[in-house]
C-alpha cells in the first residue's frame, strides 16, 4: 500500500454517538492517523512496554479484560460513567488485587467529576497518575490532555493536546478565562474531519461546526479555563446549558452536588420553557433502592446547592423519576428529556433504556409553568 498521501486523502469513516440527534457519519483523512502517535507516545508517555486497556461500549469486553489482565496492564482508560459506577457500587480493590503494574489512568467520554480524582487517589491507588482527558470523534483523538511533567489539579484537564489551539469563547466570540466559555478549535488542524457523509457541498459541515463562530471549529461543549493553573474544567454540552434567574450554569454543576447524597443513585437536570420563553431548571432524581424521595431530602439538596454554588442554581422543580436515559456511550440523554418536557419531537433510537422515556411525559408538576 502506498502511504505517500496528503493529509486530506480519505482513509475512514466514523460515527458520532448521537447525543444531540441522529448519529453523523464523518469522513477522515490521513491526518487522523496522527493522534495515536501524538496522544499516546508523547502526552501519555507510552513506551513499547506499555500495555493499554480501554473499556469500550462496543461489543463484549470479557475476552479483552481477561487477556489484558494476564499481561498486566500499565495504562488504563475508563469512560467517566464507569468511574462513577465504581464509586456508587463501592467496588474498590482489596489485598487480593494487584495494581502494581498500573501507572497511568485517564477518564473521558463525558464530564469527569472532581470526586473521581478523590476516588482514584484515595480508594484505587495512591501513586497512580490520573487525569481527565477531553476528545471528540471529529478528531479521532484528544483536544485537551494530561502531561506527565505537570501537576494534576482536582477536576481539571491540564493542557491542550499537541497541535491543537483550543480556546474558550464567550457569546461574542472573545477568548475568556475564569468563566463559562464554549470550546473551539481556533486554528486549522490536519487531524480535523474532512466532511460528513452525503454532504457533498460541505454545507452541513459548515452549519454544524463553523456557523456559531465563523472560522473556528465549535466543539459543542462548555468549559472553564482556570486563570491560575490554566487547566480546563469541562462543564458539559453547550446545548445542555441552563439559565435560571439570570444565572447561566451547566448541568454538571448540579450533578457534582447531588452526587454528595448517597441515597440518590442518579440525576438529570434540564431546562423547561413557557410560552413567554421564561426558563427554569428541573431536576430529576433516581433514588437508591431502599431510600425514599421526600421533602426533607429536597430541602437538604437545596441547602447544599446554595452552599456549594448559589441560591440561583437551585432547580425550581425537583422530582423523582424511576430511571435516567443513557446512550450506548454512557452519556445522559439530557436533550431528549428536555424535548419531552417541552413537548418537542424527539428520536429515541439512540437511548439504550428507552422504556424510561414515558416517565417524563405529561408530568402534572410541569404542566402549569
Tell me the distance between the termini.
63 Å
Sheet-strand content, in percent, reads 25-35%
Cα-atom Rg, whole angstroms? Answer: 21 Å
State the helical fraction.
10-25%
Protein name: Acetoacetyl-CoA synthetase
Domain AMP-dependent synthetase/ligase: 71-189
InterPro entries: AMP-bd_C_sf, AMP-dep_synth/lig_dom, ANL_N_sf
Organism: Trichonephila clavata
Characterise the protein shown here.
With 369 residues, the protein is of the alpha+beta class. It is built from eight helices and 19 strands. The strands form six sheets. Strands 3-4-5-6 form a four-stranded parallel β-sheet. InterPro entries: AMP-bd_C_sf, AMP-dep_synth/lig_dom, ANL_N_sf. One of its GO terms (molecular function) is acetoacetate-CoA ligase activity. This is Acetoacetyl-CoA synthetase. It holds the Pfam family AMP-binding.
